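Dear U.,

For the methods section draft, I wanted the exact inputs and outputs in one place so we can describe them consistently. I've listed the two proteins in the order they'll appear in the manuscript figures. Please don't edit the token lines directly; just add comments below if something needs changing.

First protein:
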Amino acid sequence: MCDGPRVDYFKPRAIPLSELEEVVLTIDEYEAVRLADFEKLYQEEAAMKMKISRQTFGNTIMSAHRKIADAIINAKALRIQGGFVKIKNRRNLK
């Protein structure tokens, strides 16, 4: 269970929203990035916190990293929504 992101949308500066492609990062991918990259947990420990297998966690984090790289490298907007994580605090999420 995670608190969810404080904001759910990021876009490159100086590019109108109407001209941007969008990448969707699911909330479970967001949580995997938070646990592995921000909290610096090993995959096994992060998987236990998310109540998923280590292999599923590995697949989730790999997908998240690919999506984030796509958004940065190709100047796309990044929306965080959906997925299979229970959220304790739904602030700023639609």
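Second protein (the one for the lower panel):
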Amino acid sequence: MTDAPAPAPDDAAPLTQIGADYFDGRTARAHPVRVHVAEGALVIADADGVRQRVPLASLRWPERTRHGARLMHLPDGASLHCADSVAWDTWSADAAGRRDSLVVRAQQRWKWTLASTLVLVLLLVVGYRHLLPWAARGVVALMPESADETIGELALNQIDDSGLMQPSTLSPREQQAMRDAFEQAVGHLPAGDAPRHHLEFRKSGIGPNAFALPGGAIVLTDELYRRMDGDRDILVGVLGHELGHLRHRHGMRMLVQAGTLGAATGALYGDFSSLFAQIPVLLGQASYSRDAEHEADVDAVRLLRANCISPRVMAQFFVKVRQPRAGEPASSGARLPIAFASHPADEERIRYFEQAAADGR
């Protein structure tokens, strides 16, 4: 609405009014005006003395930046621009009673910005290392075990098709003897304590290894079997570790975590195509957390002790796995490429098994 023309008062106190450019929202032409606040309204006066009253509550004040012109939006689509940002800020605070929000004030100070960035990074780290695993555990607990079987079969088929694994060259007799030894060992656990499982043998194109897939498949490679010289006590410990991964459903928890991160990435970049294609890789590389690895090690110790086998055989495993057998390249014993490559430091785990053997845990 407009009032009768009247000039802005000459005796106004400093910064109770300020000059600005008025844009009507229909043309690009700027109209110099003077503005002040009176009776809860913004009063706009141009050189001809024409005034417009706009209720303060209907004004929109864009977020203030540290530098640059100031802007105000009027409800009819018009706007006010002021190049003197310092004067505008002082006027808006003194005359209009406007105060910046805490967020805006923080953005104007580099210390606040740095602190906010550090807090955000801390929250991301805590979320990734603690909240995400906790949430994954809850999600997996609600999932039927049939989902594990479906994903495990899919992963094993894709691993076989990829060329990373080939049919085992171990004799049927060697395979069956290892299966019998493992099942006999599992039979000493309390009834119902062992999850559904079945032992698979493969010749690996990537070296000695053992890993568990959701649904029950435990894959033992020829290379690992031979590196251990077929020592069944050691291999029972290794398979007991993988059985622990199955019992705690670590593979599914890892997939849920990776899927959550993959979905977030897909939402950002619009590409979900590689999410399911990476399932075999994720399961094969099995980059479990230290907590998950320790849980599996505890299960390995339980299985060994249930069969009166000293946990010290697992310490021997780490020594033997570093030593290539005759005819193997020296580099092949330096680092296992899949499951055990991502486990905690060997020395830490050796200490655990040695201590378990010493104190009878």
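Candidate sentences for the figure legend, describing the second protein: The first helix runs from residue 85 to 94. The two ends are 86 Å apart (CA to CA).

Thanks,
Y.
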